[in-house]
Design goal:
By secondary structure, the chain is of the alpha+beta class. The protein has helices at 2-12, 31-37, 41-44, 57-69, 111-116, 123-142, 146-158; strands at residues 16-20, 26-29, 53-54, 73-82, 88-96, 104-110.
């Protein structure tokens, strides 16, 4: 049940979230990422993110440096190009997944998403919420049985 809930939350996130392996290949993505990239999940999985995402070479090198240092990188108001889609402004966040030595999470939040929803003034709050949810998800993916174990311990104390 908990795994179904996590999958449901993952698929309900309004921002595009992509998990990259140590070679920057896409190993998981949510439906918002699939929609944003306008390419099927099946076709995206296993391919390098750089095959689809075009960034300034300086920003791209900072992504690689963040991977090496296992640190976060936040890039606000960047011009982004995905495949043959028109260039758009976006915020990006790239950070290591706590339960993995090699996997990184990439969050893409297009500015038009905030404008379209009439929430431009709340975009920072929304971004923090999505980032917080992603952090919670990575923690739960790391140890999905923690809640069950805790409940069992509480029950054993009452017995």
């Amino acid at each position: 049940m908990e795994e179904n809930l996590l999958r449901s939350i993952w698929e309900s996130l309004p921002a595009a979230v992509i998990i990259l392996d140590n070679k920057d290949s896409i190993c998981e993505l949510n439906s918002a990422a699939e929609t944003l990239m306008n390419i099927s999940r099946k076709r995206l999985l296993g391919n390098s993110i750089w095959k689809y995402l075009t960034l300034d070479s300086v920003i791209k090198s900072k992504f690689h440096q963040a991977r090496i240092n296992k640190s976060q990188l936040v890039v606000n108001d960047i011009k982004l190009s995905i495949g043959k889609l028109p260039i758009f402004h976006s915020n990006l966040k790239f950070w290591p997944i706590s339960s993995s030595e090699t996997h990184m999470l990439l969050l893409i939040l297009p500015h038009e998403l905030s404008v379209r929803n009439g929430q431009m003034h709340n975009s920072k709050v929304g971004l923090k919420s999505v980032i917080g949810m992603a952090d919670i998800l990575t923690h739960e993916i790391k140890n999905p049985l923690a809640g069950i174990k805790g409940a069992a311990q509480l029950l054993s104390m009452n017995l």
